Amino acid sequence: MKHVPFLLIYSRIIMGVLIGVLAYFQLNNYPFWIVTLMSLGLITDLFDGIIARKLGVSSDKLRIWDSNVDVFFWLIVIASVFYLNVDFVKDNIIWISLVIVLEIIAYMISFLKFKKTIATHSILAKIWSLSLLIFLIDLTLNENSNLAFIICIVLGLISRIEINLIIIRLNEWATDIPSIFSVPKINKGIAIKKSRFLNS
Predict the structure, then answer these.
(1) pTM for this structure?
(2) Alpha-carbon distance 50 to 152, whole Å?
(3) DSSP state letters, the chain
């Protein structure tokens, strides 16, 4: 049972690869299967941490793996959906690029400052992941997206800016940081309250 959280994390690697294959070859009923796998990916991301804590096996190693696999999974998902909707991407490339650049900057700052990748798992980042899923489902099924895309971009920019600020203000590398407002307490060694479902 103690291996279940890691199995859930590893499953997202497989699901990501499957999504890439479905998009590239455009296999039968591929929009349905891509949406199904995207949704399952988000569900496993939610429950791997919850199960790890229940089993008492949550660790920095697991959280780092979780974060890195999340990046791998969502990069493939986004690349696959964008591959199927090139015209939409061209029309919105500036906004999409802004979110991507802020993500890259966050990883660069984290590695330069702490020699480790990001594992903040902030509440805003989790909410953004949900909005990203809704946007990608909308785009996959309708080949276009309006309101879902706007919400995704706004939350993406805000959450990426917050993550950058969290990393900049942290004195020492840490995981599971609910928000920028938690950083002062963390720096002082004060225990912070974490959401059971959105954080930690």
Answers:
(1) 0.89
(2) 25
(3) -TTHHHHHHHHHHHHHHHHHHHHHHT-TTHHHHHHHHHHHHHHHHHHHHHHHHHHT---HHHHHHHHHHHHHHHHHHHHHHHHHTHHHHHHTHHHHHHHHHHHHHHHHHHHHHHSS------HHHHHHHHHHHHHHHHHHHHS--SHHHHHHHHHHHHHHHHHHHHHHH-SS--S----GGGHHHHHTT------TTT--
- Structure confidence by residue, pLDDT tens digits, 80-127: 999 999 999 999 999 999 999 999 999 999 999 999 988 888 999 999
Average pLDDT, the chain: 92
* Sign of the alpha-carbon dihedral angle for 93, 96, 100, 106: positive
Give tens-digit pLDDT for 11-29. 999 999 999 999 999 999 9
Tokens of 42: 């988000």
